Amino acid sequence: MIAFVRGTVAALGLTSAVIEVGGVGLEVQCTPNTLADLRRGSEATLPTSMVVREDSLTLFGFADDDEKQMFELVQTASGVGPKLAQAMLAVHSPEAIRRAVAGDDVKTLTSVPGIGQKGAQRIILELRDRIGSPGSTVEPAAGPAAVAGWQAQVHGGLVGLGWSGKEADKAVAAVAPEADAMEAPDVARLLRLALQTLSKA
Fold it and tell me: Where is this region: Domain III (predicted)?
């Protein structure tokens, strides 16, 4: 298994980054928060988790070990696969997930697309004794990633994470004033704000 990758950021997309390691470009699936801290051409080290399927090998990358451990832990709950685990980390920090599970906070968990009432209750029941107690963490700051056509990219990112097109439309409209105030649209930050808007709805 690949525990981490270290190399030059060769390319950045809305849901993944390509890290050049020893002349090989590794595509790593990441949350918006993780991508926001990466810069094309810069060196990066990402803790990773490899998901092996019959027809694919997918590498997921994280901002830190806490995110990686939470990604792997939530998948031990029934019905939670890598895509849903990544969606959970796109909407909530590891600390917020710990607080939700420890506090029986079904509402927080159901703000993630793909998690219903019963699913949230099952996650809480199965993870309560293993997820650890809440502590103090600092939310990662979003960085600049100016890209044209931010509306389509944010919309596509939200749909890819499981929201409907209608919900994505509303979220894009909600963050439009923020985009207008920027010299150049910071797509990673706008996607994060859109996620926050949807999680509060």
Answer: 148-201
Q: What is the pTM of this model?
A: 0.67
How far is the C-alpha of 180 from the C-alpha of 133, rounded, in Å? Answer: 40
List of residues 6+ apart from 166 with CB closer than 8 A: none
Interval 189-196 mean pLDDT: 87
